[in-house]
Amino acid sequence: MGDIRPRVPSFYALDVVRAITGRIRDYRALAADAAAEGGASLAWPAPHDPLRAVDDFEHDLAVLKPLLEAEDASAVKGQAHYLLELNESLRRSVISRWARGRGRWSSSDGVIQVTPRIASALERNRLKNRPYSLSALQRFAACPYQFLLATIYRLEPWDEPEPLVRMDPLTRGSFFHKAQAEFYRALEKEGRLPVTRETLASAAKTLDAVVDRVAAEYADELVPAIPRVWTDEVDELRRDLAIWVQKTTDEQDWRPTYFEFSFGLSDEGRDPRSLPDPILVDGRFLLRGSVDLIEYRADFDLLRITDHKTGKNRSNRDLIVGGGEMLQPVLYSLAIEEGLGKKVFEGRLFYATTAGGFADHSIPINGFTRGQGLQVLEVIDRAIETAFLPAAPKERACTWCDFRPICGPREEERVARKARERLADLEALRSMR
């Protein structure tokens, strides 16, 4: 593909030929002669003969091309070794790529074994020694190396500023959750919870006022480039929120009690009754996070945990922890039981938008589901303890990964050649319902 753009001689080259020969040659003939003589192209800007190179870069490319095109691999073994001696960075890169392509796990694949230099750092990052959010823990199932980079190394992708044309999914989700929480707080302050069919009309007016206020705050901060597009996006969210409020009138047994209830978080805008410290679950695992909605049922003295989703409904009826990627219903329930001292009846995912179909997926909190949640935490904690956090992406996980420039392409193919024994824990986690 590098040769499809036509290459033409510089006017300076034509002047040089005229000075030598006394006449101006046809530029097409000059281009053909130059290509035949030098052999350079857009795809490989170097001559056929390394001795004709004009700089080190052209020389190295000229040396490498015939080696890469050779059919007999044994004939080129050991060739161009001088490159590794001249450039230490290239040497490290080549050795790392060679190691990653082998069937054995190596340090080029990520953290793969405990060494004296990292033992203390690993211990500090065990789930009993530092709090983790559930969104951070969910990265492990997608790829342990992504979990290592984002959660332990705390790397972040470079954020390129760009004009806001449409709301991205994160902004939509943040807007939606903020509007929900403020709506509930406004009704609670006026003693109008839960919303009933009789009070739905007045609740809708309150919702409109909340959406207008939140939209104004976001517009001031984001400065959308096209006001009409922004208004349309807000109206779409307003419509979904109105349908969501209408759906809440179907369940009068549960009273909304806590809104954006957090534990172990210090940012503002949370429920004022939030817990300042992380919660220790099962005496072994420190968790922090924010629960969208906690409801209370007085006749049974039970709580219900709800995590609102604004995307598509990708759950199935058997889902409990979703292969380690859907932890909120179960683990939030365990944390809230510990933090508030009341039993949680169920955790649920509520897909509160048109895209999600306003579907409700409830998970009973019993011995089995509690055990599933704790098993996920055990697998992740054991991976940190034994220092096995390699690049082992789930199918298609690399497509949306922020750290793909670090790993490079074809990670799934490379990992498929690795020894599978050490991936048993990870594969068991991904197979959990």
Give your account of this protein's structure:
The protein has 433 residues and is α+β, with helices and mostly antiparallel strands. It folds into 3 domains: 43 residues, no CATH class; 229 residues, Lambda Exonuclease, Chain A (Alpha-Beta Complex), CATH 3.90.320; 80 residues, no CATH class. Helix content is 45%, strand content 12%. The strands form 2 sheets. Strands 2, 3, 4, 5, 6, 7 and 8 form a 7-stranded mixed β-sheet that branches. A two-stranded antiparallel ribbon has the order 1-9. The radius of gyration is 30 Å and the shape is extended. The two termini are 46 Å apart. The mean pLDDT is 91.
Radius of gyration: 30 Å
* General form: extended
Unreliable parts: none
Largest sheet: 7 strands, mixed
CATH architecture descriptor of the largest domain: Alpha-Beta Complex
Helix fraction, binned, reads 40-55%
What is the helix tally?
16
Overall mean pLDDT score? 91
CATH class descriptor of the largest domain: Alpha Beta
Q: Distance N terminus to C terminus?
A: 46 Å
The succession of helices and strands, N to C, reads: HHHHHEHEHHHHHEEEEHEEHEHHH
Would you tell me which CATH topology of the largest domain applies? Lambda Exonuclease, Chain A
Could you say which structural class the secondary elements and strand pairing correspond to?
A: alpha+beta
Domain unit count: 3
